[in-house]
C-alpha cells in the first residue's frame, strides 16, 4: 500500500471518529436539555394555588416537593390566587406553570385561548360545593330562586353548579340575577342580605354553615360531578416530563396523607386558612383527595359543560375539550 493511500485512510478514520464524537456530545447535550453551562442553571417551577386547595397548601407547607426537585436543579415558587379563574388568567399570560382548579375555569380559559393541558383530576366531590341561603330565608327550593339574586364567582366551578341546578329545577339561567363576586365579597353580601343565595365551595361552605348558620338549599350531589383538575401550561408539560412526573407523585402522596390524617391535616391548615380546625375538617371530608390521569369519561363531562356554556353564550365559541390534552 502506498504512503499516500495509508495517509488517506488515516485521515478518513480520524474524520469518522470526529463525527461520532460530535454526535455523541450532541446526544449528551440534548439529554441534559442544554449545554453543560446552561444545565447548571436553576430552572423554575411556578405553582398557582388557592387557599382552599388543601393538597397543594399542605404540599407547600411540608416541603417534600422542593427536596425532590432540588436534585434536578429546579426551584419551586408558589403564587396564591383567590379563585380558579384568576389562577388560569395567570397561566394564560405565562406567569404560572401548574395549578389546581375546578371544572368550569378550564372551559373559560380554553375559550380565551389559554395554552394549557389537563394533567390529572380528582374523583367526583359533589358535596364539596352547594347553594346556600340565610338560615331564616323563606326559600325552600331552587325553583323559588326565580327573580332572585344569586352570588357566585364568575367562571368558577360553582358557575356550572348554578347552571345545572337551575336546569334541574326547570328554570333558565336568565330567570335569576347573577351577582358575580369572589368568595370573601360574596359572603359579605350574603350576610348583609344583599343577595338571596350564594353558591360556594369548601371550606367557605362549611365556614358559612357553622359560623352564621347558612342553610344548604342544594349541593352538587346528583347534579354535577364537581371534578377538580390539575392543569399545566402546555410548553412546561412538553419540556419538563420528569418534573411533571415528580410533581404528580408528590401530589398523590400528599392526598393519601390527608385521607389518612384528616384531623392532623385540618390542624395544620387552620392557621394558614384562618379557620377553626373543625370547620376545615368538615370541608376536607367532602373532598376525595384521590387523583387520577385524565381519561375519556372525564373529558366527555368537560365537553358537556363547554357545550352548555356556549349555548348560554357564556363563552364566545364552541370548544373541543380534547384539544387541551397532551397527545
What distinguishing features does this structure have?
five-stranded mixed sheet, disordered N terminus, globular, 14 helices, 327 residues, 49% helix, six-stranded mixed sheet, 11 strands
Helix content: 40-55%
Order of helices and strands: HHEHHEHEHEEEHEHEHEEHHHHEH
Assembly classification: single chain
Question: Termini distance?
Answer: 58 Å
Largest sheet, strands/sense/barrel: 6 strands, mixed
Radius of gyration: 25 Å
Outline: globular
Strand arrangement within the widest β-sheet reads 2-1-3-10-4-11
Structural class: alpha/beta
Rounded average pLDDT: 88
Low-confidence stretches: 2-42
Number of DSSP helical runs: 14
Percent strand: 15-25%
Strand elements, count = 11
Write the layout of secondary structure elements.
Layout: H1 3-32, H2 36-39, E1 43-50, H3 54-62, H4 64-70, E2 74-81, H5 84-92, E3 98-102, H6 105-111, E4 116-122, E5 129-133, E6 149-152, H7 157-168, E7 177-180, H8 183-191, E8 197-201, H9 204-212, E9 215-219, E10 228-233, H10 234-239, H11 241-260, H12 262-273, H13 277-286, E11 291-293, H14 296-311
Parallel strand pairs: 1-2, 1-3, 6-7, 6-8
Antiparallel strand pairs: 3-10, 4-10, 4-11, 5-8, 5-9
Report what the structure shows.
The chain has 327 residues and is α/β, with parallel strands linked by helices. The chain is 49% helix and 18% strand. The protein contains 14 helices and 11 strands. The strands form 2 sheets. A 6-stranded mixed beta sheet has the order 2-1-3-10-4-11, with helices on both faces. Helix 7 (157-168) links the parallel strand 6 and strand 7. Helix 3 packs across helix 11, helix 4 runs antiparallel to helix 11 (241-260) and helix 5 runs parallel beside helix 6 (105-111). The radius of gyration is 25 Å and the shape is globular. 42% of the residues are buried.
Amino acid at each position: 500500500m502506498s504512503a499516500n493511500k495509508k495517509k488517506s485512510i488515516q485521515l478518513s478514520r480520524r474524520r469518522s471518529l470526529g463525527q461520532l464524537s460530535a454526535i455523541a456530545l450532541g446526544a449528551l447535550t440534548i439529554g441534559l436539555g442544554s449545554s453543560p453551562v446552561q444545565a447548571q442553571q436553576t430552572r423554575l417551577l411556578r405553582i398557582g394555588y388557592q387557599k382552599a386547595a388543601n393538597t397543594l397548601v399542605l404540599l407547600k407547607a411540608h416541603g417534600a416537593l422542593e427536596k425532590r426537585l432540588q436534585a434536578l436543579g429546579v426551584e419551586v415558587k408558589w403564587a396564591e390566587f383567590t379563585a380558579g379563574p384568576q389562577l388560569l388568567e395567570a397561566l394564560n399570560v405565562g406567569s404560572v406553570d401548574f395549578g389546581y382548579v375546578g371544572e368550569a375555569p378550564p372551559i373559560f380559559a380554553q375559550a380565551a385561548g389559554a395554552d394549557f393541558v389537563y394533567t390529572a383530576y380528582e374523583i367526583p366531590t359533589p358535596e364539596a360545593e352547594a347553594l346556600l341561603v340565610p338560615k331564616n330565608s323563606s326559600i325552600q327550593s331552587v325553583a323559588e330562586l326565580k327573580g332572585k339574586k344569586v352570588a357566585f364567582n364568575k367562571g368558577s366551578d360553582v358557575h356550572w353548579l348554578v347552571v345545572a341546578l337551575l336546569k334541574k329545577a326547570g328554570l333558565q339561567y336568565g330567570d335569576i340575577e347573577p351577582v358575580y363576586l369572589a368568595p370573601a365579597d360574596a359572603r359579605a353580601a350574603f350576610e348583609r342580605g344583599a343577595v338571596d343565595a350564594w353558591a360556594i365551595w369548601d371550606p367557605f361552605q362549611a365556614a358559612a354553615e357553622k359560623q352564621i348558620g347558612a342553610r344548604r338549599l342544594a349541593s352538587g350531589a346528583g347534579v354535577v360531578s364537581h371534578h377538580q383538575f390539575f392543569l399545566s401550561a402546555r410548553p412546561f408539560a412538553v419540556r419538563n416530563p420528569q418534573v411533571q412526573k415528580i410533581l404528580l407523585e408528590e401530589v398523590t402522596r400528599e392526598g393519601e396523607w390527608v385521607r389518612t390524617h384528616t384531623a392532623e391535616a385540618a390542624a395544620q391548615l387552620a392557621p394558614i386558612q384562618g379557620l377553626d380546625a373543625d370547620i376545615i375538617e368538615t370541608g376536607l371530608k367532602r373532598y376525595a383527595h384521590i387523583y387520577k390521569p385524565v381519561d375519556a369519561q372525564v373529558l366527555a363531562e368537560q365537553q358537556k359543560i363547554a357545550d352548555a356554556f356556549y349555548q348560554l353564550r357564556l363563552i364566545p365559541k364552541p370548544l373541543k375539550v380534547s384539544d387541551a390534552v397532551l397527545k
